[in-house]
Design brief:
TIM Barrel; eight-stranded parallel barrel; 13 helices; about 10% strand; globular; disordered N terminus; Deoxyribose-phosphate aldolase; DeoC; schiff base
Amino acid sequence: MTTTVTAQRDGAFADAGRDDTSLRRFLHGLPGVDHVGVERRAATLATRSIKKESKLHALDMAISMIDLTTLEGADTPGKVRSLCAQARRPDPDHADVPTVAAVCVYPDLAGVAVEALQGSGVAVAAVATAFPSGRSSRAVKLADTALAVEAGASEIDMVIDRGAFLTGRYGAVYDEIVAVKEACGSAHLKVILETGELGGYDDVRRASWLALLAGADVIKTSTGKVSPAATLPVVQVMLQAVRDWHRATGEHRGVKAAGGIRTAKDAIRHLVAVNEVAGPAWLTPQLFRFGASALLGDLLRQRRTQLEGHYTDRDRIGGA
């Protein structure tokens, strides 16, 4: 794939975003995904095991990559503060557990999270652009983004207009990402593809490249509101995209797997895929994230099992 992308770079990269025709030419010129091959490789990667002495390191790495998330209509400032306290000190009985990467909330609660996390090193991410549907005007989406940035969010998770993408209006999707990226200022932009609503792996690859062309710092699988969400084959296709982007441009971009990853075993499978598909350079919170609310609890339980030699029940770690 890299050879094809490099060969097209001077033409399609230069024209990207100017019109639907040039984008369509580039995106549909990408090699098709080998559906059988990607699923077979994902199944193989899922069977890989790590040595016992490496498991504690893998669990800590996964914890450090979590965007601890609450995105419910019933969210309150108190709930966000409680989540931030957990983000700062995931396991109250073990001070050596790393902090999570970020806390992800709605824009109107970003200021609460910023205040609660001050000095912790934990980032504040806010969803924007009419999350989770993405169905609103450009003006409303930009205002949504501005609200989060002004409140102090250092990361913005936007959703693409899937309707525009699926009808081939790639220029509209590109222009919107570019506009949101500009509205982010210094905040990092994660672009949610909502892969469960795309037509298949080929569309996942095209949407990944479209977001990267438009300036996404991170491409993200899903909102967590649609099923299927972060499957291992889909994440593998997205990892291929950022790997090949790096080979073509020299720039590192990240991937966020969000939705449906609930166990330590699932998280470690994804870390194996990151290492094998993209490479060890991506095994950092800057370049790989988990969007999760339930995952942290199982990671902490498995971590205690490694340290104490027996499984720890849910209540002992505060119901995380």
